[in-house]
Amino acid sequence: MTYIEKTSLDTKALKEKILQLKKERNAVILAHNYQIGDVQDIADFTGDSLELARKAANLDADVIVFCGVDFMAETAAILSPEKIVLLPAADANCPMAEMITAGELRVLKERFPDAGVVCYVNTSAEVKAESDICCTSSNAVKVVESLDAQQVIFVPDRNLGSYVARFTDKQIMPWEGFCFVHDRITPDDVITARERHPEAEVLVHPECRAEVVDLADYVYSTSGMINHVCRREKKEFIIGTEVGIIHRMEKDCPDKQCYPLSENAICITMKKTDLQKVYNSLESLTPIVTVPEDVADKARLAIQRMLDIK
């Protein structure tokens, strides 16, 4: 699947200009695995939410250009308040992150005062500030198990919460949020994909529905999928997550054949960033993402607790 980018310059020239501006600004470009291929190609680091959060916390740069969605740039701004954090696509808002507010979470905390609060990193800074600890899809089980509380409020992804509940004796109380890309993948998609590619292993993301997870061979975060594909002797894989990851797999594991579980698994928000927006952002040093200090201080505690879990 190819995404055509409309730029004022040809792609090669634009990439060269971005790399030159990056040096002048002492900038680092971070890109999520779901970004379009050309954006992944000019990034210094490409990864999943946890990998990029760790990078953001330890970068020696004046400027961080975050090619992803809003909550990712907010996390970078929280971890690196001394740096300029740019989100090239200012309107790249994560729909799932908008499904829970800090006010709604405070109501839940009042109803269940003894419960621990785990928020998926796919949340706003304000929600993180109301949480005990953050998690990503790759470490959610470890995060839940790290809490002393037996009841755990888990926001906002009901599917990830359901997946975590399989591996813990704690009572998981999930919010009713979801990722629309993963939630709309169906068991029929899995059955059809297996019929088309009978020799392929099926890998799905834990943001998928439980009935889809049940049909998969393996369940991984995006980086977990990439690692699995690269290290396995098998040659064919069906990938149950956003289609942008396949570009990364083709680069990292060129001897493997990866098929999207669903051709419709496209996050339009992730596709809002293109090379022209990256260039414009570096040139103007806008749009800058900032988080109020009082919110950032509280949110930083929840994020750091997550990063401290190995």
UniProtKB/TrEMBL annotation:
<dbReference type="GO" id="GO:0008987">
    <property type="term" value="F:quinolinate synthetase A activity"/>
</dbReference>
<dbReference type="GO" id="GO:0046872">
    <property type="term" value="F:metal ion binding"/>
</dbReference>
<feature type="binding site">
    <location>
        <position position="32"/>
    </location>
    <ligand>
        <name>iminosuccinate</name>
    </ligand>
</feature>
<keyword id="KW-0004">4Fe-4S</keyword>
<feature type="binding site">
    <location>
        <position position="267"/>
    </location>
    <ligand>
        <name>[4Fe-4S] cluster</name>
    </ligand>
</feature>
<keyword id="KW-0662">Pyridine nucleotide biosynthesis</keyword>
<feature type="binding site">
    <location>
        <begin position="205"/>
        <end position="207"/>
    </location>
    <ligand>
        <name>iminosuccinate</name>
    </ligand>
</feature>
<dbReference type="GO" id="GO:0051539">
    <property type="term" value="F:4 iron, 4 sulfur cluster binding"/>
</dbReference>
<dbReference type="GO" id="GO:0005737">
    <property type="term" value="C:cytoplasm"/>
</dbReference>
<comment type="similarity">
    <text>Belongs to the quinolinate synthase family. Type 2 subfamily.</text>
</comment>
<dbReference type="InterPro" id="IPR003473">
    <property type="entry name" value="NadA"/>
</dbReference>
<feature type="binding site">
    <location>
        <position position="179"/>
    </location>
    <ligand>
        <name>[4Fe-4S] cluster</name>
    </ligand>
</feature>
<feature type="binding site">
    <location>
        <position position="137"/>
    </location>
    <ligand>
        <name>iminosuccinate</name>
    </ligand>
</feature>
<protein>
    <recommendedName>
        <fullName>Quinolinate synthase</fullName>
        <ecNumber>2.5.1.72</ecNumber>
    </recommendedName>
</protein>
<comment type="function">
    <text>Catalyzes the condensation of iminoaspartate with dihydroxyacetone phosphate to form quinolinate.</text>
</comment>
<keyword id="KW-0408">Iron</keyword>
<feature type="binding site">
    <location>
        <position position="222"/>
    </location>
    <ligand>
        <name>iminosuccinate</name>
    </ligand>
</feature>
<keyword id="KW-0479">Metal-binding</keyword>
<dbReference type="GO" id="GO:0034628">
    <property type="term" value="P:'de novo' NAD+ biosynthetic process from L-aspartate"/>
</dbReference>
<feature type="binding site">
    <location>
        <position position="94"/>
    </location>
    <ligand>
        <name>[4Fe-4S] cluster</name>
    </ligand>
</feature>
<comment type="pathway">
    <text>Cofactor biosynthesis; NAD(+) biosynthesis; quinolinate from iminoaspartate: step 1/1.</text>
</comment>
<keyword id="KW-0411">Iron-sulfur</keyword>
<dbReference type="InterPro" id="IPR036094">
    <property type="entry name" value="NadA_sf"/>
</dbReference>
<keyword id="KW-0808">Transferase</keyword>
<dbReference type="Pfam" id="PF02445">
    <property type="entry name" value="NadA"/>
</dbReference>
<feature type="binding site">
    <location>
        <begin position="120"/>
        <end position="122"/>
    </location>
    <ligand>
        <name>iminosuccinate</name>
    </ligand>
</feature>
<feature type="binding site">
    <location>
        <position position="49"/>
    </location>
    <ligand>
        <name>iminosuccinate</name>
    </ligand>
</feature>
<keyword id="KW-0963">Cytoplasm</keyword>
<dbReference type="InterPro" id="IPR023066">
    <property type="entry name" value="Quinolinate_synth_type2"/>
</dbReference>
